[in-house]
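can u do me a favor
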């Protein structure tokens, strides 16, 4: 088993250098090696993501770990006293049993429209359940990493009451929406999750929004594009890649 994990560690390092070349440091590689040896996480399978300079485990990675470890079972139930279906607020309790005689490891997860991404609005019940399972599994197997699905950083940001003004003092018609961290993080997460070319995604986004650059699009258009990209990637990634490749043609700039 150790030999298999050593091979996996080398593969993970190689793939990580290609996926996160701009933010991957020596300390990240050291942490990745430890995570691979301790838990058998695979970068290729999407078990781990590097976001904002930190490693995060995914729901899929946690479930694969449970399967490898022959987890006895996972029990999930609603915490009805704290649920409000009309408001889209849900709370779940998950219990993980590592073996027939092991004690249970409990985790709670909550979700409501204020702490989920616009891409999954309306799925708060399932997100709350996923978060509960993730927390219980992390406790059961001693994983200190937060899971991506638990992150509040990828929830929707409150809409500004007024359009922000750039440094020149003139109000912007679009609010420079892509500059807002939450939308940018959502887009980056999708690019990394589905291993997409960032430059081609930006070109596609600008075309989708009908602007020369993505920074020139309104916040509403950027949100719409993110939702569209997420749905397209989930439904048929290969078709999406083909679409993105159509934007790879070199642009000839006219000389003045």
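np, heres the sequence
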């Amino acid at each position: 088993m150790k030999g298999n994990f050593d091979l996996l560690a080398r593969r993970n390092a190689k793939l990580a250098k290609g996926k996160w070349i701009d933010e991957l440091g020596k300390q990240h590689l050291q942490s990745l090696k430890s995570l691979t040896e301790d838990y058998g996480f695979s970068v290729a399978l999407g078990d781990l993501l590097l976001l904002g300079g930190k490693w995060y485990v995914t729901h899929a990675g946690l479930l694969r770990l449970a399967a490898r470890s022959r987890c006895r079972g996972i029990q999930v139930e609603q915490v009805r006293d704290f649920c409000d279906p009309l408001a889209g607020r849900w709370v779940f309790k998950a219990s993980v049993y590592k073996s027939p005689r092991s004690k249970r490891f409990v985790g709670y997860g909550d979700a409501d429209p204020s702490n989920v991404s616009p891409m999954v609005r309306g799925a708060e019940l399932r997100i709350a359940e996923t978060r509960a399972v993730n927390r219980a599994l992390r406790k059961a197997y001693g994983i200190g990493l937060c899971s991506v699905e638990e992150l509040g950083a990828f929830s929707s940001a409150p809409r500004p009451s007024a359009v922000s003004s750039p440094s020149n003092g003139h109000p912007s018609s679009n609010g420079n929406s892509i500059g807002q961290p939450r939308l940018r993080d959502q887009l980056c997460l999708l690019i990394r999750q589905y291993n997409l070319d960032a430059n081609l995604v930006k070109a596609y986004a600008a075309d989708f929004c009908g602007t020369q650059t993505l920074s020139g699009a309104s916040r509403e258009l950027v949100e719409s594009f993110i939702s569209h990209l997420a749905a397209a990637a989930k439904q048929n990634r290969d078709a999406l890649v083909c679409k993105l490749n159509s934007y790879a043609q070199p642009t000839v700039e006219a000389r003045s």
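Strands lie at 48-51, 54-57, 73-78, 90-97, 104-111. hope that helps!!
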